[in-house]
Amino acid sequence: MADKTEPGGRFRPAETQRLDAFVDAAFAFAVSLLIIAGGEPLRSFDDLVQALLRIPSFLAGFALIILFWLAHRTWSSLGPRRDGMATLLSVAVVFSVLVFVFPLRLLTETALHFMSGGWLPGGDLLESFNQLGWMYAIYGFGFSILSVLYVLLFRHARAGLERDDPRWTAANDWGRTWALAAVTGVVSGAVALSPVLPSAPWLPGFTYWLMPVGIWVFAIMDRRRARRQAG
Per residue in 55-101, pLDDT tens? Predict the structure, then answer.
């Protein structure tokens, strides 16, 4: 495979192209699994209506998978070394995403069923608060595992860059963001398995709001640090 040139004049070696192409194909397959997991043969018009009503849950799951794909593409744009560690971490991301699809589909369909007041399908997927807790926990811990892999990927990219390189700062910021995501997933899973779940079944999902709040706090801290350095 011939080398190609990225915008800006940087060359993409063949090993870079192979790894990125493999990861892209795996994410596309994960989206296919997301559809298949909720797909059933259509035998009537009512079946068609039920399939169409599952589109919102598919869209929510699709958006989350794209989030992880975009993160890997961002890592790739930083020009990290494609050594054994980069390959190992990328393959681990692929494996984790393919496993993550199944609790993701269950969570999105169940959550949207309750958020829609029962209008959307998904009410028959869980039978007890115990199952709800374990669903949130499996999803949260899976989310954390994926986030930790991205922390390691961005630290790997940062290690190959000079500190005055803008890409070093970008890799550091992205690693910090994914560390926050990893903590959020653990907190959500812990809350889901705690005794508070029956009285607050919405709380494990609500904990994911820690991420935008944390990113906002990081942005404020960065601006203050930049002002102090400029002064």
Answer: 888 888 899 999 999 999 999 999 888 889 999 999 999 999 998 88
What is the C-alpha separation between 155 and 177, in angstroms, rounded? 12
Would you say 216 and 185 are in contact if contact means Cβ atoms under 8 Å apart?
no
pLDDT digits (tens, 9 = 90+) for 123-161: 777 788 888 899 999 999 999 999 999 999 999 999 989
* SS3 per residue for the chain: CCCEECCCCCEECHHHHHHHHHHHHHHHHHHHHHHHHCCCCCCCHHHHHHHHHCHHHHHHHHHHHHHHHHHHHHHHHCCCCCCHHHHHHHHHHHHHHHHHHHHHHHHHHHHHHHHCCCCCCCCCCCCCHHHHHHHHHHHHHHHHHHHHHHHHHHHHHHHCCCCCCHHHHHHHHHHHHHHHHHHHHHHHHHHHCCCCCCCCCCHHHHHHHHHHHHHHHHHHHHHHHHHHHHC
Whether the CB-CB separation of 197 and 204 falls below 8 Å is answered with yes
Question: Terminal CA-to-CA distance of the chain, rounded, Å?
Answer: 51
User: Quick check: 72 and 24 in contact, CB under 8 A?
Assistant: no
